[in-house]
Amino acid sequence: MPLYEYQCLQCTSGFTELRRCAEMDSQIDCPECGSLETNRTISSFAVGGASAGVASGSASSSSQFK
Ligand SMILES: [Zn+2]
Questions:
Q1: 53 has which bridge partners?
Q2: Number of folded domains that form the chain
Q3: How far, in Å, from the CA of 53 to the mean position of ligand 1?
Q4: Could you tell me if residue 63 is inside a domain?
Q5: What is the pLDDT, as a whole number, of residue 34?
Q6: 9-66 pLDDT, tens per residue?
Q7: Cβ atoms of residues 4 and 22 within 8 Å
């Protein structure tokens, strides 16, 4: 299930939700203030810094694959 990022227009807090594709543009209420005035923003799941650590770790242990 894809992760979508939303931002509240009332309190400007950002939050992420796991939702089905069919629901990604439906309204969702802000977990901070309960407002329904939220915008879906660009999903950031492809940007995470965690992937860099995984990449360097697999590089150092690449000899195990031979
Ligand atoms: Zn809010």
A1: none
A2: 1
A3: 33
A4: no
A5: 97
A6: 999 999 999 888 888 778 899 999 999 999 998 655 555 554 444 545 555 555 556 6
A7: no
Length of the chain: 66
Centroid of ligand 1 to alpha carbon of 41 (angstroms): 14
Q: For position 29, which CATH number holds?
A: 2.20.28
Phi and psi dihedrals of 63, rounded to 5? -65, -20
How many C-beta atoms surround the C-beta of residue 29 within 10 A?
Answer: 13
Residue 5 in any domain: the answer is yes
* Domain range for 14: 1-46
Q: How far is the centre of ligand 1, averaged over its atoms, from the C-alpha of 46 (Å)?
A: 25
Q: Is 20 helix (H, G, I), strand (E, B) or coil?
A: coil
Identify the three-state secondary structure at position 6. Answer: strand
